[in-house]
Amino acid sequence: MKKILFVMCLMAVTVLSVNAQQRGNRENMTPEKMAERMTEKMTEDLKLDEAQKQEVYDLNLESANKRTEMMAKEQTDKKAARENMKADQEAHEAKLKEILTNDQFVKWEEIQKEQREKMKDRRGGGGRPQ
User: Fold this and answer.
1) Rounded to whole angstroms, how far apart are CA atoms 19 and 93?
2) Does the pTM of the predicted model rise above 0.70?
3) SS3 letters across 43-106
4) What is the pLDDT of residues 85-130, one digit of tens each?
5) CB burial class (10 A; 0-12, 13-18, 19+) of residue 96?
């Protein structure tokens, strides 16, 4: 019985440790890596050409840098940071609309909607408190 309990505890510690490491890798991602990752995903999903890919990367990098900066500030003034992030997101979307074709932009909006639904499901259907 003691051996079984010990093995179960050992497995639980291992699972928690691996989960924490995976989350930590995501949180410690540089703005360049975030922009690169997002651009690759968009290139794959939206079939971007090389010119679009470079423009989207530049835009994603700019947004990632702003988000990283805002996240650091958020620790002190959450409401202002949230408003700044929303304004940045709207500006990002407007610039993206100029880069993408209409079909690509519609598809991107659909992908964003699906991702928001997935996040909502992960949070238990609630969403963030305002």
Assistant:
1) 32
2) no
3) HHHHCCCHHHHHHHHHHHHHHHHHHHHHHHHHCCCHHHHHHHHHHHHHHHHHHHHHHCCHHHHH
4) 888 889 999 999 999 999 999 999 999 999 989 988 887 755 455 4
5) buried
